[in-house]
Structure prediction request, 462 residues.
Amino acid sequence: MPLTLYNTMSRRKEELRPIDPRNVRMYVCGPTVYDFAHIGNARPVVVFDVLFRLLRREYGEAHVTYVRNITDVEDKINAAAKERGETIRDLTERTAKAFREDMAALGALPPTHEPRATEHIPQMIAMIATLIARGHAYEAEGHVLFQIATMKEYGRLSRRTLDEMIDGARVEVAPYKRDPGDFVLWKPSPPDLPGWESPWGRGRPGWHIECSAMSESLLGEHFDIHGGGLDLIFPHHENEIAQSLCAHEGRPFVDIWMHNGFLTVSGEKMSKSLGNFVTVHELLREWPGEVIRLALLSGHYREPLDFSAERLEQAKQMLDRFYRAIGEAAKTGTRLRHDDHEPAAVIAALTDDLNTPLALAGMHEALHALNASLQRAPEEAAEKAAMLRAGGALLGLLQQDPARWLKGEADDAAAIEDAIRRRNAARKAKDFALADRIRAELAGQGIVLEDKPGGKTEWRRA
RNA sequence: GGCCGGAUGGCAGAGUGGCUAUGCAGAGGACUGCAAAUCCUCGUACAGCGGUUCGAUUCCGCUUCCGGCCUCCA
Prediction:
């Protein structure tokens, strides 16, 4: 099935035609590791994880290379380390580790490569030297700057002209820049800051060069997909394009540029500066990672998504329904007759520019079919449940044990079972007042009972 | 100011030039001692104004409102 993706460069959906189907290559801008990731930072991770899963399904697990970098040299890191009295190395190690753990909790597969900027300094220096040699960059007061006037297509991704950028400039222009839009490739580092020897003295890289250098080194000059948040279009991706294209003498760089929309809180962009953010770390204390993941996938990735408690509640409720049905199907003890294929509607939705809300509608269709067969044709239930799980696998959902999901760790399971036994004895004796009292007590502990036909009683946590 | 997006039923959220989105909430029914869960049934929503069309929520234009970017930002 052809995979269609919205390309920011052309502003339309395009069919993905891999450069090499035996090695489909994707690069996504990862975190700058100076602080815990907030839930807005997690959106691209989850979105591109779905794409990674879809690509692996289409082309085979061994035929997709996914690179997500870790920016571990940056001025905010230096500032944060200083403020906390922590070494830069400790700070970046600790933050990178927390990031990996948080993203794993959200069900994101590890990327194929997770390169660190500090491990690719020689590649960056080489690329900068090339840019100088080709006349695209110049040295000034210890800095190396990219000269955007040397790049005719500069501004194509963000669709803005040089004049527009100068008009809108809201930042003071450094006096050594030939053009206000020129950006830093290399800057000098004083002895107390991280620095590397280079032809231009001891210094550190500018922000944009790392992605150009690392994508080249791990994916080659030309690769299929480059992703990131909407706010990276300008200047980050625009500058990456300028660097890579000019270093590669105009040869093709990225075929499809993808950008996810923002998370909002009460309609406003979630951001560190506004202070209206929640870290994934905090959220995970209150909600299972899978609930957070589903909440993130409940809107289309290019649209803004308002993040709220209600959205999380709904996601939780949805997962409960799915797991309940899958758990019931397991109890029928029937066997699969066919391989577990994903529901067609789910595939169709995902291959149309990752339409996850529509895919979830497909999942509900499949759920409905499963519930209907549980009621009317239990011998078909196992197969329908397998379908649901297969669809879930593509979304990174529904892979847990249903009993565990519904009942939790259940160290008080014996007491609950005992209460249920007492209640059922009371029901048998038609002492419904006592039975209802026991049920109310359990409800107070967050335990919901479901009396099944045949006298059995199921329980789960609300 | 320049450049992008967006406006769908009580809420969330897809989509389509004419035909049910989906989920939650709500109403009725089946089942149940009562519930819960599940199943069955139920809501003519597409910001406003023009235009194109046999027909527009869907295409075009304008207006209003909301959000984002314009070298910190996923």
